[in-house]
Design a protein that fits this description.
There is one protein chain. By secondary structure, the chain is α/β, with parallel strands linked by helices. The protein has a domain of 236 residues: Rossmann fold (3-Layer(aba) Sandwich). The chain contains 12 helices and 12 strands. The strands form 3 sheets. Strands 3-2-1-4-5-6-10 form a 7-stranded parallel beta sheet, sandwiched between helices. A 3-stranded mixed beta sheet has the order 7-9-11. Strand 5, helix 6 and strand 6 form a beta-alpha-beta unit. 44% of the residues are buried.
Length: 338
C-alpha cells in the first residue's frame, strides 16, 4: 500500500484530492493541515474514520512534527497543497503569505530532503515531491496567447510572488540535491468545498440571500476555469507518470470573463432555484472599483500534460458549474459553518 503525505489536505483542492484518492486508489493518506480559515475539517467528515486516512493537525513549519510524521509513516509521495491562497488577503496582510508559502515550503523541503537522503536507491528513485502551484505566478496575459511551461514568472501580487518563490525553491532542491520534484501550475479551480470568499461560491451564496453580486471593474478580466475533480485526476496522473524536474500546466480550456461567470451562475440559479424576491438573479449584479494589481487574463496551455501523459479534462464549464451549484444548494449547513 502506497503512503502519501498531503499538506493542506483540509483545504478546498486538498480535501477534494483526498476524496478522489480514497475513491480511485488504494493508497494510505497522511493528511497534515493547520486548519486555518481555508482548512475546514468539515470538508473531511465523510472520511475522518476511513481506515486509509489519518488526519494530523499541524503546520508545515513545525520541523519536529514533520520529522516525526516522515519517520512514523514513511511516505513515498509528498503532495504539497498547504498555502495561503487569496489574493485580496495577500494585499491586506502579506506577512502570513511570506511565512506560510515561502518559509513553510522551505522547512518542508528541508525535512523531506533529510528524510529522502537516508533511503535506499530504489526508494529514492520512486519518491516524488509534488509542488502544487498556480497560473498566477506567470503574471498577466494580453488578449492572445497562453501560459506554457516555458513562460517566464512575473507575479503581480504578494500571493503570486510567494507561490513563485516556493516554486523556485522546489526547483532548486531538484537541481541542487536531486530531490525528485514535480511542479504543477493550475488555472482557477471551482467545485465542492471551496471557501465562500472565492468568486463562484461567493456569488452563489450572495445571490441566494438577495445580496449584491460585486464584480471588479467592468468584469472583463479573463480566467481559465478548471473543475476541481479534473484537477485531481491530473495530479494523480502526474504523480504516476510525470518526470522529476518537469513542470506540468493544468488548465480546463474554459476561458470566461468574470462577468460571464457571474451571469452563468445567475442563469443556472434562475433555472434551478428561482429567485424568491421575483425576477432574475441578474438584477443583483453590481460593479465595484478594481482591485490593485488585478491581472487582466490568465489562460493555460495544457498540451504538454495531455500529449505526454494522456490527461484530458472531463467537465465543460457548463457541466462543472451546474454540479458546483447543485452541491452548494444541497450543503447549506456546510456553507453556514465554513
Amino acid at each position: 500500500m502506497q503512503t502519501i503525505l498531503i499538506t493542506g489536505g483540509a483545504g478546498f483542492i486538498g480535501s477534494n484530492f483526498v476524496h478522489y484518492l480514497l475513491t480511485n486508489s488504494n493508497c494510505r493518506i497522511i493528511n497534515l493541515d493547520k486548519l486555518s480559515y481555508a482548512g475546514n475539517l468539515s470538508n473531511l467528515i465523510a472520511v475522518l474514520q476511513h481506515p486509509r486516512h489519518f488526519f494530523v493537525k499541524g503546520e508545515i513549519a513545525d520541523r519536529s512534527l514533520l520529522a516525526q510524521l516522515l519517520e512514523q509513516y514513511r511516505p513515498e509521495w509528498i503532495v504539497h497543497f498547504a498555502a495561503e491562497s487569496h489574493v485580496d488577503r495577500s494585499i491586506n496582510n502579506p506577512d502570513v503569505f511570506i511565512q506560510t508559502n515561502i518559509v513553510g515550503t522551505f522547512v518542508l523541503l528541508e525535512c523531506v530532503r533529510e528524510y529522502w537522503s537516508r533511503q535506499n536507491l530504489a526508494t529514492k528513485e520512486a519518491f516524488r515531491f509534488l509542488q502544487i502551484s498556480t497560473d498566477e505566478v506567470y503574471g498577466s496575459l494580453g488578449t492572445e496567447g497562453y501560459f506554457t511551461e516555458e513562460s517566464r514568472y512575473a507575479p503581480n501580487s504578494p500571493y503570486s510572488a510567494s507561490k513563485a518563490a516556493a516554486d523556485h525553491l522546489a526547483r532548486a532542491y531538484f537541481h541542487t540535491y536531486g530531490l525528485p520534484i514535480l511542479i504543477t501550475n493550475c488555472s482557477n479551480n471551482y467545485g465542492p468545498y471551496q471557501y465562500p470568499e472565492k468568486l463562484i461560491p461567493l456569488m452563489i451564496l450572495r445571490a441566494l440571500h438577495g445580496q449584491p453580486l460585486p464584480v471588479y471593474g467592468d468584469g472583463s478580466n479573463v480566467r481559465d476555469w478548471l473543475f476541481v475533480l479534473d484537477h485531481c485526476s491530473a495530479l494523480l496522473n502526474v504523480l504516476k507518470q510525470g518526470q522529476p524536474g518537469e513542470v506540468y500546466n493544468i488548465g480546463g480550456n474554459n476561458e470566461k470573463t468574470n462577468l460571464q461567470v457571474v451571469q452563468a451562475i445567475c442563469d443556472l440559479l434562475d433555472k434551478i432555484r428561482p429567485c424568491q424576491h421575483g425576477g432574475s438573479y441578474h438584477q443583483y449584479i453590481s460593479f465595484v472599483g478594481d482591485r490593485p494589481g488585478h491581472d487582466y487574463r490568465y489562460a493555460i496551455d495544457s498540451s504538454k500534460l495531455q500529449g505526454r501523459l494522456g490527461w484530458i479534462p472531463q467537465e465543460s464549464f457548463e457541466t462543472g458549474l451546474e454540479k458546483t451549484i447543485t452541491w452548494y444548494l444541497a450543503n447549506q449547513d456546510w456553507c453556514a459553518n465554513a
